[in-house]
Amino acid sequence: MKKSFFIKYRYYLIIGVILIVTGFYFSYRYYFAKQDKPEFITPFLNVQSVWVDSLVENMSLEEKVGQLIMLENSKQSSVDVDSIKLWINKFFIGGLILESDSLKNQVLLTNKFQSYSKTPLLIGMQTKDAYADFLKDIISFPTALTIDAVSNDSLLDVFRNIIVQQNKLLGVHINFSVSIEKSKYNNDSLFEKRVLQKALKFTSALQKEKILASLNNLEMFANINDDSSANYKKHIYPYEKLINSGLSCILINNKNNNDELKNYLNENLNFYGLVFSRANTGSIENSFNSGADILIVNDSVQNIVAKIKKLIDEEIISIEEIDRKVRKILSAKSWVGLENYQKLNVEDSEKKIKNDFNLLFKRNLIESSITLVKNKNGIIPFSCLADKQFFIANVGKNNLPDFVDFFNFYSPAKTKKINPETKYFEYFIKNKKDCNPLIITLNDIKIDTILHRKFLEFLEKSDTLLNLIVVNFKNPDNLKYIQKLSTIIQLYDNSEIEQQFAAQLLFGGISAKGILPYSISDSLILGQGVKTCKTRLKYTIPEDAGINSLKLSKIDSIALEGITLYAIPGCQVWVAKDGKVIYNKAFGHHTYNKEIKVKYTDLYDIASVTKVAATTIATMKMYDGNKINLYDNLEEYFKNTKIDYTKIKADTIIKTDTVNINEIENFDTLLTIFDTIHLNDTMIVKICTLYYKVTPKLNIFKAKPYDLLIHKSGLAPSLPILPFILYRHDTVFNDGVVLNSRKDSVKYLFNKYYSRKYIKDSATVQIAKSLFMKNNWFDSLWIFTKQIRLYSSKVYQYSDVNMILLQQTIDTINQVSLDKYMSRNFYKPLGLQTICYHPLEHFDENRIIPTAIDKYWREQLIHGHVHDPSAALLGGVSGNAGIFTNANDLGVLFEMLRKNGKYGGERFLNSSTVKRFVSTQPGSHRGLGFDKNSSFMADSASVETFGHTGFTGACVWVDPENNLVYVFLSNRVNPNVKNWKLNTYKIRQRIHQAVYDAMEK
Q: Is there a single domain that holds both residue 388 and residue 490?
C-alpha cells in the first residue's frame, strides 16, 4: 500500500513543527524581554554605533578614565583656558560645564575646547532657571518661582522651546535643570498637576531636540525599603513617572555609601541612564558605589584621575565596569550628535538668541505671573477714578520709582516711605478721606510676627476703613501673615518690569492671570489666583502690539529733524496700538533758548484740537442724554435770543487770500465794530463777496447744531473781535472822542478795553499776564456775536464761531461752563491729570510750554494763557480753543472714543453715538465735529480715521480700522506764528506714516 504524504514525511513535519514552535517561543521571549529592557525607555541606550564600538575598543585606560570626568568651570570671574586645555589634552576629560561672561565668548570658548579634544566633549549646563543666566548680554528670563506662577500652558510651552533652542545654539548637550521640589507642596494632586507635569514637559522638550535631560538633584528616599502606598505616592511615584517618560540622566547628591540607591534605580525604577555625581578626591569611591557614571569636579583633575586609577588597581572598580560606563557615555554623545560634531556659528547664535522677541516674551511671562491673591470686594481693577484719593505707602528696603511713575499714568497719588516698626498708622486713620484707597507696598521685606506685630494690627484695622490694597514684592511667605486682608497682590520679584505691571494691574491696564506657585497655608493653596479683565490702556513695548521697535524708532529721527530745522522747539509724540501705548516720548526744549527740556508730563496749548477734545465730546454726551437735538435751531436752547437789528446794516465782505496783519494798509476800513473778519491766531482771512443783513429769519439762533458740527452753518469764520485786537491802529472812535496824539489815542483805547491788573467787578477777565478785559466789553462781545451775519446758502466754511456757539449752547443747557462739565463727566473719571482750561490755576509755569510771542496785541510771550484771540477774549474757556494737556491725557481721551465710548470699565458715551459722530457725513468730507480725510495725516491712514489739528502744531488721529491712536503736540508758533516749517516738512504726517511702516505683517 502506498504511504501517504504525511506518513512518509512525518519526521520532517514533526521537526518542522518543533522548529516553528521553538521559533515562536524564543521570539515571544525576545519580544517581551526587549520590552523590559531599559533602553526602550532611555533613548540614547538604543544607539547602534560603529563609532562607539570603535572608541571603546581602541581607547587607552587613561582616555576611558577621562570620559568619566566632567569639569565644572562655573561661577568664576574668568575662564582658565590654559588649564582646561591641559586637562583636555593630558587627561582626556569627557565633559565640561562652562560659564563665560558673554554669548560670543561662550560660543568661541566652546568651539575652542571642542577643537582641543580628541573625543568631542559633552557640554553641560546647570543653572537655577534652566537657561544661560550667567551670560550678561542676553535677555534674562524670570526666576523659576515666577514661571511657576504662570497658569497659561501655551505660554509655558513656548518658554520651554525658547530655552531648548538657546541650549542648542550654545552647544549644550545636557541640561541639569529638570526639577522636582516637593517641600512646599502639601497637596498631592496639585503637586502632580503643576510640578510633575512641568518636569515631564521640560524633559520631553529637551530630548525631542536631542539634549539630555537630567534630574538636578536626587537624594535618598525617606525609606527606600518602605513599600507602603503612602511612601510610594509621596517619594517614589514622581521619580518613577519621570523615568518612565524617558529621562536620560540623574544627578545624585549623596553623602554616604548608597548601594541601595544604585540597586533601587536599576531594579525597582528600571533606570539605566547616565548617573552624575559631584565629587572630590575624598568622595569618588562613594560616588561610584552610588551608581555614578560621570563625576562632576571642579578641583584638580590630576588628583581625581589618580584616585580613579587607584580604585581600578585595587580592583574596587573593575575594567569591565569602566568599559560599561564609557560605552554608555559614548552612546549618549552619539545620540546628541557628537559623532558628527560641527562647530558653532557665532553670528547665527547671536542673531537667534539676542532678539526683541525674547524681551517681549520675558515681559509676557512676568505679566502672566502676577497673582491677584484676593479681591474680596472686587476693587481691582479700580473704577470711578473721580472719587478716589490714592495714597501709596512703601514699606521695605528701597523705593519703587517705576511703580509710582506707572501708577501716575492712570491717576495721581501721594506717596510716602514708611518704617513698619514705627507708629505711623494713626496718620492714615485720621486722614482717611485723603488716602482712600490706601496702597501698601511691601518691597522685599520679610514680615516678622514679633517685630511687625503692630504693623500687622494696623493692616487688619485699615482693611475696611481705607479700602486697603497690599502689593507684596518678593517673599510670598509673607502672605500667611496677611491672608485675612481683602485685597492682596503678589509679585515674585521687584524689577522695573514687575513694578510697572503691578501698577497697571491695579487699573486694568493688564489683566490678572497668575496663580500661587506653591501652597502658603490651608486657605492659600497652589494654583489659587483671581482673574480680572483688561479695562484700560497698557503701557508696553512696540513688539507687544506687533510693531517693530527698530522701524518705529524712525519717529525719533523725524522729530529731531523738525527741531534741527527750527520747525519746532520741541514736541511730544504718543502712539497706542490695540489698546497698548507703545510710544510716549518728549523731544527738544520749551523754547529755542534750550533752557528747559520737554518732559512727557508737560502741557501744550492744543488750540483747535479743543473743538473735539471738549466741545464735540460734550455735544455727544448731551446727545446721548437727549439734552440736545442736532436739527433744532439754537433758539430752542436760549432764553434770550433778542438781537438789536437797528444797528445792523447790509455789508460786503470781499474775498481774498490769507494775509498778515502788517500787510493791511487801511485799518480804518476794517475796524468798524460789525465787520466780520476771520482772525485765525493772528492771521486774517477775508471771505466771500456777498451782500446780506441779519434779520429775524436769518441770524445765529437759526443755526442748527448739526450744521455747526460739519461747518456748514453759514456763519462767518470768527468773532467780531478786531477792535479789541487792533486798537493800536484805530483812529476812528465810535464814541466821538478825538485826541491830539497817536500815543494818547492808544492809551485811551487800551483803558477803554483793558486793565493791567485785576479789578473786582470791573476787570476780571484775564487775557494774558497783567492784562484783563473790562467786564462791560466782555458782556458786549456776546451782543456783537449775536449780530454776526448768517449766509442764506450753507456752503462749507471752517469757522471758530461754530464751535463757540455750540459751547454757548452747551453752557446754557447745563447751567455750568464747558470746562467744569468736561472735568466732571470725562477728565476726572478717566483719570486725566493735565488736561484743563486755565492751566496756571493748576500747574507750575515751568510745566507749561510757552506758546508764542504776540507782537501785535498782547505784546508778550503767551505762556499759560490761551493763544487763540477769540478764546482769550472769552476768558480762556471757549469751544474753539483753550485746552492745555500733555499727549498721554489726550491719547487716553481718544482711546475712549476708539473703544466706542467705553474705558476703565465705565460707559462714557453710547457706542452708536460715537459711530455716528466719527463717520463721514452725507454731503460733507467731515464727521460731526471731527476732521476726516485730512492732508495732515499719514497716507496709509484708513478712510475711517478721524481727529483734528491745532494751529499751535498739534494733532490727534484715531484709526479704528488699525486700532491706532496717534498724538503729536508742539509749539511750532514759538516764537513766531509765521513759522510754517512744521507743515512744509510734513513732520506730523511723516511721524504718523512711520507708525504704519513699523507695523509687522
A: yes
Is 351 domain-assigned?
no
Structural domain count, the chain: 5
Of the candidates 741, 721, 722, 885, the one whose C-alpha atom is nearest the C-alpha of residue 804 is 721
What is the structure's pLDDT at 791? 76
The pLDDT value recorded for residue 374 is: 97
Joined grid coordinates for residue 737: 472822542
Interval 384-409 mean pLDDT: 92
Rounded Cα gap, residues 874 and 668, in angstroms: 24
Average pLDDT of span 978-994: 96
Is the domain of 324 the same as that of 414? Answer: no
Which are the contacts of 930, defined by CB distance < 8 A and separation ≥ 6?
612, 616, 917, 918, 946, 947, 948
Query: pLDDT for 416-454, tens place per residue?
Result: 888 887 776 677 767 766 778 999 999 999 998 877 888
Strands 902-903 and 371-375: unpaired
Residues 6+ positions from 468 with CB-CB distance below 8 Å: 437, 438, 440, 459, 462, 485, 486, 487
**Cα dihedral sign, 381-385-389-390:** positive
Q: Are residues 15 and 164 in the same domain?
A: no
The mean pLDDT of 787-795, rounded to a whole number, is: 77
Note whether 202 and 273 are same-domain residues: yes
Q: How far apart are the first and last CA of the chain?
A: 92
- The alpha helices in 336-452, defined as continuous H runs, are 346-353, 356-369, 401-407, 425-430
Number of Cβ atoms within 10 Å of the Cβ of 321: 14
Identify whether the C-beta of residue 366 lies closer than 8 Å to the C-beta of residue 412. no
pTM comes to 0.87
Whether the ω angle into residue 38 lies within 30 degrees of 0, i.e. cis, is no
- Please report which confidence band the pLDDT of residue 252 belongs to, taking 50, 70 and 90 as the band edges: confident
Contact 140, 133 (CB under 8 A): yes
Distances from the Cα of 979 to the Cα of 181, 631, 774, 915, 938, angstroms = 69, 40, 32, 36, 22
Three-state SS at 480? helix
